[in-house]
Write a structure and sequence with these properties.
By secondary structure, the protein is of the alpha+beta class. It has two domains: 259 residues, Zn peptidases (Aminopeptidase); 111 residues, 2-Layer Sandwich (Alpha-Beta Plaits). A hairpin with a 2-residue loop joins strand 10 and strand 11. It is elongated and about 80 Å long.
Length: 386
């Protein structure tokens, strides 16, 4: 007969700490590249527990002021061998307004018209609450805590991790804005494509025939590219375009940035090549012939995890123990799991119950914060028992 372990319980002081810490972290604005104050607050909490907090060299990247943080919580004496990685990111997208968390009808929201920062400070606060619990009561397995920077800018912090800095073979990130219970089984490969057209300037009213319009070339290229959702696994988007100098000048220069994503690696490469081909074709159209500079960067690799993997099975058991039916989904977005999987750590991204991430109106319920905590406590038991 299978004996099901009881659902973990959270004490009232833990609820107060979890929610209070979450609100405090949200007030510390930490857009990508400016995570120092948030990192210092997290480090202070962990050091107060007697943990050794280490900061790596990711902060030496241009535009960054802080590195990734790691801390190890050792298992209780006699516990199973092994180590489990738990990861959250410190950065947010740029705030559109000052962040003042308020609690309305059980949901944390920003009192102002902008993001809250629940992506990913809900998970950061939860991991701090977890650290307090397992330092006090012990853990069934060693736990590595990882707090990354620059996740919102192509996973920059995780990309800069030294491969030898982590010893876990299984890990979890909590970075998908959907109901708790969803388990991300696949995430796409991603290409960034930057292009600059250089034509010739001329007076638009007196000598337009002497000019070569870089904006016209870029527009032709964009019109010829695939856009949006192309199939069940692939998307293409032109995210920014900038060019020209004045209304009455044939524009000499125009730049754009596009992206390609696909759950199928070969499809992502094929689409990136297609976008580049359209750029070159447009640059060679006689009426707007331009020089063209193109750079293509593979930002991160996709992954797909089968349900039979130990990390997936442990996640499903932990969710069921907490009353959730696991729901496997694929995602068009990425997380630090993309990098960790590529580094050989079997990593699962779990939904964290947040809503409307990256938007004004972003929110998370107190219930979701607490349930994420319960699921993570269950994960420790399930992985420790493997």
């Amino acid at each position: 007969m299978t004996v099901t372990s009881p659902r973990p319980t959270i004490t009232e002081p833990e609820r107060r700490y979890l929610n209070g810490t979450f609100a405090e972290l949200c007030r510390i604005e930490s857009p990508s590249g400016h995570e120092r104050l948030c990192a210092e607050r997290v480090s202070a909490e962990l050091r107060a527990l007697g943990l050794d907090v280490r900061e790596d060299a990711a902060g030496s990247q241009p535009g960054f002021e802080c590195g990734n943080l790691t801390a190890l919580v050792s298992a209780r004496p006699g516990a199973a061998s092994g180590c489990l990685l738990l990861c959250a990111h410190l950065d947010t997208v740029p705030p559109q307004a000052p962040i003042e968390p308020v609690l309305l009808d059980g949901f944390w929201e920003n009192a102002n018209n902008g993001i809250l920062g629940a992506d990913n400070k809900a998970a950061v606060a939860m991991l701090l609450a977890l650290a307090r619990r397992i330092v006090r009561e012990g853990s069934p397995i060693d736990v590595e805590l990882l707090f990354t920077v620059g996740e919102e800018v192509a996973l920059a912090g995780a990309q800069a991790l030294e491969p030898s800095s982590l010893r876990s073979k299984i890990g979890y990130v909590f970075d998908h804005a959907s109901p708790i219970g969803e388990v991300i089984t696949a995430s796409p490969s991603h290409y960034r494509i930057e292009a600059t057209f250089r034509g010739a300037a001329a007076h638009a009213g007196i000598r337009p025939e002497d000019g070569r319009s870089a904006i016209l070339a870029a527009a032709r290229a964009i019109a010829a590219m695939p856009h949006g959702r192309l199939d069940d696994a692939s998307t293409v988007n032109v995210g920014t375009i900038a060019g020209g100098s004045a209304m009455n000048v044939v524009p000499e220069r125009c730049s754009l940035v596009a992206e390609v994503r696909s759950l199928r690696d070969e499809r992502a490469e094929e689409l990136a090549e297609s976008v580049v081909a359209r750029l070159h074709e447009a640059a060679n159209v006689p009426e707007c012939e331009c020089d063209l500079d193109v750079s293509v960067q593979r930002m991160f690799s996709g992954y797909r995890l089968s349900g039979g993997r130990p990390a997936m099975q442990a996640a499903e058991r932990a969710l069921r123990r907490c009353g959730y039916a696991p729901v496997p989904i694929v995602s068009g977005g990425a997380s630090d799991a993309n990098v960790l999987v590529a580094r050989g750590i079997e990593t699962v991204n779990l939904a964290n119950g947040t809503e409307r991430n990256h938007e004004p109106g972003e929110r998370v319920s107190t219930t979701a914060l607490e349930e994420m905590f319960e699921v993570t406590l269950s994960l420790l038991d399930e992985v420790g028992a493997c």
